[in-house]
From TrEMBL:
Species, as recorded: Neocallimastix californiae
Acidic residues biased stretches: 302-316
Signal peptide start-end: none
Keyword Hydrolase: no
Protein name, UniProt field: Uncharacterized protein
Keyword Transmembrane recorded: yes
Keywords associated with the record: Membrane, Transmembrane, Transmembrane helix
Chain segments carrying region Disordered: 291-322
Transmembrane segments: 69-95, 107-126, 146-162, 212-232, 244-266
Positions with biased composition (Low complexity): 291-301
Top-level division of the source organism's lineage: Eukaryota
C-alpha cells in the first residue's frame, strides 16, 4: 500500500522568512500572483464576514436608515472592510511565488491596519452608548461616556501593540499578539458592560429587557469569551488547539451586522411611543403613534416631528397629557 507524502518546498529559512514556516500565514503552495492570493481569502470566514457585513450595512444605510446611529454602523462596516483588505492583501502579496526569496523583516501594513480595526471594533461600545443615553435617566449616560472614552485609550494601546508585534515579526499570530488580543477584548468586555438606570418609560424598559439587554449581554459575553480563549489557547497550546477560538472570533467579527439587524427589528417592533399620565390615577397608559414614518434610529423626519409635537401640545393643553418622543439619533 503506497502513500502520498506532503511535498515540502525548499523555502528559505531564517529571519525575514518566518511567514513560510508553520507559524506563518503563507500556504504550503505559494500563490501564483497577488489576485489568486486575495481571492483565496474568501475561503476564510472572517474575510467573508467583513466583506458581506460592509455590503449589507451599506445597503441598509442607503435604503433610508440614515442618522447618527447608522452613521456609526456604516463607519464600522467600512473600517472592517478596509481592514480585511489590508490584512488579506498583505498576506496575498508576500506569499507569492515571486516573493519566496525576498526577506520581509518588517510588514508595516500590519501596523497601519490597526487604525481600521480600532474604528470597527470600538464602534460597538459607542453604539451601545447611544442607547444608554436615550433610555436611561440621570447621569448614567454621562458616566458611561466618560468610562468608554477612557477605555478607548487602553484599547487603542493594545491594538497598536498587536500591530507592532505583527509588523516586526512579519507574522499575523505570535504569543505576543495572542496576549494582546486577550487584553484588547477584555477591555471591550468592560466597555460593553451594562450601565443600569431607570428607563424613561415602562414599555421601553420592558422591551429592552427582552431585546436590547439581551443583545448587549450577548456582545459582552462574546467579547469576554474571545479574551479568555486567546489566553487559554496560548497558555495551554499543547493541549487546547487554537481552532477552539474560531467560533467566538467569527461571531465577534459580525457584531456590526448583528447590531444593524437589531436596529431594524427595534424600529419595526417599537416605532415611536408616546404616553400620558391619567388625571385621576398614577397609572400610565401607553399608546403607539400612528405615524409609521417615524424612526427611532433615523433623524430624517425631525422637522415634521417638531411640527406635529407643537400641534399636539396646543390641542391637548387642557387634558394635562405629557408626551415623550424618543429618538436615538438625537443623543
Amino acid at each position: 500500500m503506497s502513500s502520498n507524502p506532503i511535498t515540502i518546498y525548499p523555502y528559505p529559512i531564517g529571519d525575514g522568512f518566518e511567514r513560510f514556516t508553520s507559524k506563518g500565514m503563507c500556504p504550503i503552495n505559494p500563490y501564483k500572483n497577488f489576485f489568486e492570493g486575495l481571492f483565496s481569502k474568501f475561503e476564510e470566514s472572517n474575510f467573508n464576514t467583513n466583506f458581506l457585513q460592509w455590503g449589507l450595512v451599506t445597503l441598509m444605510y442607503f435604503a433610508g436608515n440614515q442618522g447618527k446611529y447608522w452613521n456609526v454602523l456604516l463607519a464600522g462596516a467600512i473600517a472592517g472592510f478596509i481592514g480585511t483588505l489590508f490584512e488579506g492583501g498583505t498576506a496575498a502579496y508576500v506569499c507569492r511565488k515571486g516573493d519566496i526569496n525576498t526577506p520581509r523583516h518588517h510588514l508595516i501594513s500590519y501596523l497601519i491596519v490597526e487604525v481600521f480595526w480600532i474604528v470597527k471594533e470600538y464602534s460597538i461600545p459607542f453604539l451601545n452608548l447611544y442607547k444608554i443615553k436615550v433610555f436611561s435617566k440621570g447621569n448614567v449616560g454621562k458616566t458611561a461616556e466618560y468610562i468608554i472614552k477612557i477605555l478607548l485609550i487602553f484599547f487603542s494601546g493594545c491594538r497598536f501593540y498587536i500591530g507592532y508585534e505583527r509588523m516586526i515579526h512579519g507574522l499575523l499570530t505570535t504569543s505576543e499578539t495572542k496576549y494582546g488580543h486577550m487584553a484588547a477584548h477584555g477591555i471591550m468586555g468592560l466597555a460593553d458592560l451594562e450601565f443600569p438606570g431607570k428607563s424613561k418609560t415602562n414599555i421601553i424598559k420592558n422591551y429592552l429587557q427582552h431585546s436590547y439587554y439581551i443583545t448587549i449581554i450577548f456582545v459582552d459575553l462574546t467579547s469576554i469569551l474571545v479574551s479568555l480563549m486567546n489566553g487559554i489557547t496560548e497558555m495551554y497550546k499543547d493541549v487546547i488547539p487554537n481552532s477552539f477560538l474560531n467560533p467566538f472570533q467569527s461571531i465577534k467579527c459580525a457584531f456590526i451586522l448583528l447590531l444593524a439587524c437589531d436596529a431594524l427589528i427595534f424600529e419595526q417592533n417599537i416605532g415611536v411611543y408616546t404616553y400620558y399620565k391619567k388625571d385621576i390615577t398614577n397609572d400610565y397608559k401607553f399608546e403607539k403613534d400612528n405615524n409609521n414614518n417615524n424612526n427611532l434610529y433615523n433623524d430624517n423626519n425631525n422637522d415634521n416631528d417638531n411640527e406635529n409635537d407643537n400641534e399636539n401640545e396646543s390641542e391637548n393643553e387642557n387634558e394635562k397629557k405629557e408626551y415623550i418622543t424618543i429618538d436615538i439619533t438625537k443623543v
